Inverse folding.
């Protein structure tokens, strides 16, 4: 059976476009706090983000992947100008998949209620669309399921995520399908990690999701949000793979997954000397 390959990256947080600081949307209290964080830390950490994006293009030239998984956070404030610019960069990356790409939004993409609408317009090329869980057939042995866990909050201190009960019900129905249970691997893509110790920036209802996943041992979680790449066991057969940030200073990287004969392997990659290398 043919080898299936996937590159999973996340949290590119493109630098804030020049000339957009005066947009009226920056008056939103949540963005005011984000502006302080951006000035003090984020601007420096992601200043060379486009260099790392070009390095991923070069990597995919040399090592193509059948599928690309992107788990969100293209921007910082969720402004329309940011989202429109970022959509062009992300579209260019996702077009590199040999078969197709699968993406979900992050909390910075859906930063405010208006950003939800602006994201839907700017990222309309992303399929399945943000919102209800959707299944994507990858091969006879593998599938992907998208789950939107990012929600806008008015409170400037609140960056938690959540999965509504009706979406959990739909996810359970998808995973219960016979064709999904027969898969060697079902990748679940969402922005927030189901298992996370950081309560102030985590899922509000992780237990409900983890309990659901426990009944489906072939599910492997692919997430973003946490900017340090890592892997953590959820059960004897399940892991959650955090892609970290593709572009963050000192920690840039991604995961490459390969499925061969029903056996999944996962290799972390790191950025060094203007290129990406296996981090083994």
């Amino acid at each position: 059976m043919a080898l299936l390959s996937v590159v999973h990256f996340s949290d590119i947080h493109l630098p804030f476009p020049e000339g957009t600081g005066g947009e009226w949307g920056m008056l939103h209290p949540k963005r005011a706090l984000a502006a302080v964080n951006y000035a003090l830390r984020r601007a420096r950490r992601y200043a060379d983000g486009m260099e790392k994006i070009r390095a991923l293009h070069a990597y995919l030239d040399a090592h193509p992947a059948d599928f690309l998984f992107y788990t969100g956070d293209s921007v910082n404030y969720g402004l329309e100008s940011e989202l429109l610019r970022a959509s062009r960069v992300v579209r260019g990356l996702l077009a590199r998949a040999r078969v197709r790409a699968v993406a979900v939004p992050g909390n910075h993409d859906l930063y405010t209620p208006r950003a939800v609408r602006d994201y839907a317009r700017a990222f309309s090329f992303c399929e399945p669309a943000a919102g209800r869980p959707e299944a994507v057939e990858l091969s006879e042995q593998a599938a992907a399921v998208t789950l939107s866990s990012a929600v806008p909050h008015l409170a400037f201190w609140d960056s938690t995520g959540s999965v509504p009960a009706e979406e959990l019900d739909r996810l359970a129905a998808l995973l219960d399908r016979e064709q999904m249970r027969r898969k060697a691997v079902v990748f679940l893509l969402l922005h927030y990690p189901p298992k996370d110790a950081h309560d102030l920036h985590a899922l509000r209802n992780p237990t409900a999701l983890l309990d659901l996943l426990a009944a489906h041992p072939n599910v492997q979680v692919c997430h973003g949000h946490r900017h340090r790449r890592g892997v953590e066991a959820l059960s004897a057969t399940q892991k959650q793979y955090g892609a970290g940030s593709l572009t963050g200073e000192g920690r840039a990287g991604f995961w490459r997954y390969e499925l061969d004969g029903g056996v999944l392997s996962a290799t972390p990659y790191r950025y060094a000397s203007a290129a990406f290398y296996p981090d083994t």
Observations:
- The two ends are 27 Å apart (CA to CA).
- The mean pLDDT is 91.
- The longest strand covers residues 263-272.
